[in-house]
Amino acid sequence: MTVQHYLYSVRHGPTTMILQRYKPIKFAMGFSQNATSDFEKEKEYDISTPIVINVSAEDKSSVEYTIMARKSRGGNSAVIVSDTQKDIIPLFHQEAFFQNINTVLDKAYKADVPIYYIMLSSLKGFDAWNLPDQLHYYDNGVIVDKGDTVDAFETTNLHKEFLLKDIDTVYVTGVSSLGCVLGTTKGAHSRGYRVILVEDAHDEPEGYRTAESVEKCNIRVANGEFAQLQAAQDVVF
């Protein structure tokens, strides 16, 4: 098994790093101490363009890490709309949800901030896969198919694209609060992004959990300290 991961480097120069001084790559995915990797210790690597490092575990599984330098600090923003497809309607707070998420999308479009509409690929081929009529879609929007995972980064090239576009701040919105919204928020944080969960622009479909899921998600995020909470009206790009 090989999984691809894209990481920002911890820089030791504008575009170079010495991998022995980088955080232990072989432990990043929970491999044992007997895991091996193919990088050369003490060698200085040019990471102005991506380099790939392979890490192998005793069970023969492996992970490929693509590492590259962050182009700048205080970089760009992106908005993630998680799993907001026709299949999710009705929602517990449907009217307020669409009003708030559209407020964020309108602001993003006017500020030329890219919007990524994450779509469950299992619904493809059915009308349920499409975006609901209530949701604003703009021509700077990117449709991203993902598998049935709660983390939008896990089975997509989203992280790679964010690296190449120098995106360092991610605004998370969409459905469902305690599922893919929470999972994507954690996933963005674990990959080094500044994460803002728009606290009133995510919701739970009726029949999934309960109407209190929105507040439970916000509390988990606040207690876990892996994202900031911000109301839709307060979002400024």
| Topology order in helix (H) and strand (E) letters | EEEEEEEHEEHEHEHE
Please give the share of residues in helix. Answer: 10-25%
Q: Which residue ranges are poorly predicted, with pLDDT under 50 across at least 5 consecutive positions?
A: 1-35
The major sheet is characterized as: 6 strands, parallel
> Roughly what is the average pLDDT, rounded to an integer?
78
What does this structure look like?
- This protein is of the alpha/beta class and 237 residues long.
- It has four helices and twelve strands.
- It has helices spanning 94-110, 158-164, 177-190, 213-224; strands at residues 2-8, 16-18, 36-37, 44-46, 51-56, 62-68, 76-82, 115-120, 141-146, 167-175, 194-203, 228-230.
- A six-stranded parallel beta sheet has the order 9-8-7-10-11-12, sandwiched between helices.
- Helix 3 (177-190) runs parallel beside helix 4.
- The longest helix is centred in the middle third of the chain and has 17 residues, at 94-110.
- The radius of gyration is 19 Å and the shape is globular.
Short description:
The chain is of the alpha/beta class.
Topology:
Layout: E1 2-8, E2 16-18, E3 36-37, E4 44-46, E5 51-56, E6 62-68, E7 76-82, H1 94-110, E8 115-120, E9 141-146, H2 158-164, E10 167-175, H3 177-190, E11 194-203, H4 213-224, E12 228-230
Helix pairs in contact: 3-4
